[in-house]
Design a protein that fits this description.
2 helices, Tachylectin-2, Chain A, 27 strands, four-stranded antiparallel beta sheet, mainly beta, globular, six-stranded antiparallel beta sheet, about 350 residues
Length: about 350
Amino acid sequence: MKTTVLKAAPAILTVIASVFFTSCRSGAGKQSFYENPVVRAEAPDPSVIRTEDGTFYMYATGEGYSIFRSANMTDWVYAGKVFTDENYPSLVRNGRKADLWAPEIRKIKDKYVIFYTLWFGTEWLSAIGYATADGPEGPFTDKGILIDSREVNVEQSIDQFYFEDGGRSYLFWGSFRNIYAVELKVSDDVTITPDFGTMVQFAGNAFEGTNIFKRGEYYYFFASVGDYSGGEKSTYRTVAARSKNVLGPYVDRRGVSIMDNGYEEVLDRNDSFSGPGHNAGLIVDDAGQTWMYYHAYQLSNLGLKRQGMLDKVEWTEDGWPYIKGGVPSSKAEAPVVSKR
């Protein structure tokens, strides 16, 4: 779940404009570590991509969507915004310019595509659109609306996730009002059109922030449950289920379907962080290790609200994902990133 992001105080802007000092290096040839948060600024609902030159980019909810850049997954610098007054999505409802929530970044053919949520203050006025650019830092050109809550009769049409599988493209979306999926038609010039004849309900009403990750014979559904708000009292947390088919049915260890709100808990709060959730699509580093970016409140610094976090996803022998201890780390072994 999202909130309208207010303009940051000067002190926060100073933090955003600076280099984020989160990696603790122990010297060449020795083990490298990092500290959470890896982005010490407001960075809710992160989406992360790695470009062909090896650079990582994170996009996060904020005024115009904040962009952060990293060479090693742990040290991040502020790199600008996706949308400004010049290219902001043009849809207006009830005389209101929308808030932007939960960006989703992808490289599709030769374009960088940002899928965006527009929030106008009520669930039935929400919409999902997309914009394209030639590079990860833009400039992005708005291409219009893909999903409209009223037209598809899906309350709270937000939190989109794009996934390609077997030559097909899918969009998953929804937030605590059931999760839905639809196939997309993508032209050579990256014009994207939903095929609403394929639209199906995908999951129940416990979830938001859908992510799909393929590993081995299984597809994994990652999402968030609970209340994102409340700072230190947040009950938000990350959960998962799995299936051998991209559209499900996804089940927990007991065989309970996500259509019936079944799930396995992956990440919950601890004494340092609350509300760990709304993870980005999982990233595999150059050693084959799996990593999850997400947001959380740091209890010792609640003024920065939901900051950017990183943790390693481990896998049981029978293929279930977990994070060590089931809680956010404060300091951990860093990802392996080779220069390209």
